[in-house]
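Class, carefully examine what follows:
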Amino acid sequence: KSHKQNSQRPMARLPLPAPIYRVPNYLGRSDVEARLTEVELDTTLEVFNLDSLPLEAKDLDRLADALELNASVESFSARDCALSVTNLDQLATVLEDSRSLTALDLSGNVLGGSGAASIARALAKGQRSLKTLSLSESSLGLAGAQEIAKALEAPSCRLQALDVSYSKLGEKGSARIAAMLRSNRTLETLNLAGNKAGDFVLDVLAGALAMNIKLKKLDLSENEISNLGASYVGEMLANNKTLTDLILAWNNIKATGVDSINEGLAQNVALLTLDLGGNPIGQAGIRALSEAQKCSTWRTIMWDEW
């Protein structure tokens, strides 16, 4: 049984993987017609996608009517559809009215603040069936992060999994999403990978997760986190009792940062998986993690032997 990874980039381990830098493969109007006819006629359809299709306003009106009659659809995806603000408003209305939809994927569309506000409106207005929301590579920025965070702070929101990876949140946007965890009581999985969050987001998370008793899986890979951020990770692990999976792969954590993380691990019995693959921890870091693994055999720790 090995807990060591080679230098190849590890695959995402959260249930909301984020393909990076996809090139959309747009289809034609005949494909749109075929997909919409399918959802109108097949009353047993549970998963429905319009990925990479050139959607127009009339298509989303038709979709709304179909989903109102077809209560079997639980998962809907419209990735890489170049959706306009008007389109997103229409989708928000569909979302508000749905009582069966549990998963929505709008990754690869440029949402920004306006698009995020449309989706957030549906979440905050009592949409109780949706459990998983994927907005990877959606260019949310700070404005979009603020809208989504406010929605998840609403007592009526029931979302359990959120993916906002590679969405240009930056330091402030990532911190706003992290701060939301102070009051949110439903989210179990959060993917913040690839947002250039930096160390500050860990400071915010350490405070938020000291009070949060729900979050179990957190992905912070590729976020320019250094030893300073790792010291906040140690603090977070020392105080949090519910986080089971933490991904910190492909950051800039070194041996000193590993020592800080190990201090937190020594006081934590909840964490089951820690991924530090792709960090330049050196031989000293490898030795420290090896010792930590021996002291907690129930826990899986991953790193690279560089």
Remarks:
- The chain is about 40% helix and 10% strand.
